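Hey,

Quick one before I head out. I ran the complex with 8-OXO-guanosine-5'-triphosphate overnight. Inputs first:
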Amino acid sequence: MKHTAERPLVADGDRPRADVAKGAPRKLVQVAVGVLLQPDGHFLLTSRPEGKVYAGYWEFPGGKLEEGESVEEALRRELYEEIGVTIGAAHPWRDTVVDYPHALVQLHFCKVTEWAGELHMHEGQQFSWQQLPVQVEPVLPGTVPVLEWLEQERGGVPLGG
Ligand SMILES: Nc1nc2c([nH]c(=O)n2[C@@H]2O[C@H](COP(=O)(O)OP(=O)(O)OP(=O)(O)O)[C@@H](O)[C@H]2O)c(=O)[nH]1
């Protein structure tokens, strides 16, 4: 199912939604996320740093768009700041919306096959080149559908069905 602002993927639905102001519409936070792919199909996962929500959970690297930025610009900035690489083209791939206790986020996933520079985790994260099925856990709720899309693309049976 495609998750939109009207029908988001709900994460930890039993917890209160901290950012919901009475009567006000909930802000949809825009996030650019990179799926860095090696020629042999390995992809990069990073762990969320201490001090951020869902610290220690594994995700694809990325972050929030700043005022006036495009998805590609935000992704280029975030990946340089967070993991020290300069990316080539960011190819828009899939979008999804996730309703977390801390925020409602729209995730713009881009595939990236070219980058320059050595990986340096500037926020104390861990990183791992993974293939399916992934060997790290826990995985961030918003990352789970991405693994399913990757599985579908390689022609396997989708997880959970
Ligand atoms: N980077 C990233 N964020 C994701 C993924 N999946 C997902 O649901 N998210 C959510 O998207 C939001 C991204 O925020 P972030 O905290 O990583 O971004 P940031 O570095 O710009 O944040 P900050 O500068 O406020 O600390 C978080 O709510 C995070 O839970 C993913 O695969 N990668």
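Residues 31, 33, 52-54, 59-64, 98, 100, 103, 105, 107, 140, 142-143 surround 8-OXO-guanosine-5'-triphosphate (CB under 6 Å).

Talk tomorrow,
K.
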